[in-house]
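dumping this here before i forget
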Amino acid sequence: MEIITTINDGILTINFNRPEKKNAITFGMYQAMADAINASNDDNNVSVILITGKPEIFTAGNDLEDFMKHAGDLTSGDMPPVYQFMHALNDAQKPVIAAVAGNAVGIGTTLLMHCDMVYAADNAKFALPFAQLGLCPEFASSMVFQQIVGYQRAAEKLLLGEAFLAHEAFEMGFINKVLTVEELLPYAEKQAAKIAALPAKSIRLTKSLMKANQPQAIREKMNEENAHFGAMLSQPEAREAMMAFFQKRKPDFKQFN
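structure:
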C-alpha cells in the first residue's frame, strides 16, 4: 500500500510508503489520506494524527505524471482528492504532528504549514518551487507561510523557490525541533503519546480556540490560490517547466519574456 494508516494507543499514523517513487503523491494517495483524516474527527479511538514518510524521503511532492493526467480535474468544479486532503488537514479536529526526514518538496512542505507541530531530521530539506515551475503558491501558503515565518522570509522562499535545510527552518520558526534521523520518529511518537494521554475534550477545545477563525480564512485563500494555480497549469511557462522536467533539462523561460 502506498499510504499505510494505523491506529495504536490513540495515535493515527499516516505513512507515505512509495519509496521507489520517492513517495511522490498520486490522487489515490491523496484520497486515502483525506478519508483517514476525515474519519478521525468522529473516531474516539484517535486523539492525535502523525504524518511521516521514510528516513531518506518524506515526499517528492506530486507525482507529475499522475498529476498532469488529472490536471483537468482541478478546474472541473468537483473537489479532486488533493483538495479533499488539504481541506481535511485544515479542518482536522485532532492535533496533527509531522515527522519529516529527507526531502519535502512542493506540497510536501505546504502540508506542514497546516500541521500543529513539525519535527524534522537533520537531513530534511524543504522546497516551495512553484514560481520556478511557472505556477503560484498553493493551498493558502501565500498567507499561512508568512504568518509562521514573517513576510520577508516567506517572500524569499516563495519567490526564489530555493530549498532550505532543517536548521534554517528551525531558526525561522517553521519547525519545532531538529533531531537525528534515528531520533526523529521515536521523538515524534513520544510527543503524540503525550497528547493522547491528555483529556481529549481539552485538547480539541484548545486547538479550536487557537485556530479561532483561521480555517474559514484559509479555505477562502485556498480557493483563490487554487483558481490561479489551475489556470496557470495550461500556460506556456508551466508547460515548458513540465516538459523540461520530463526531458531532464533546464527550462527556458526567456522565450516568454
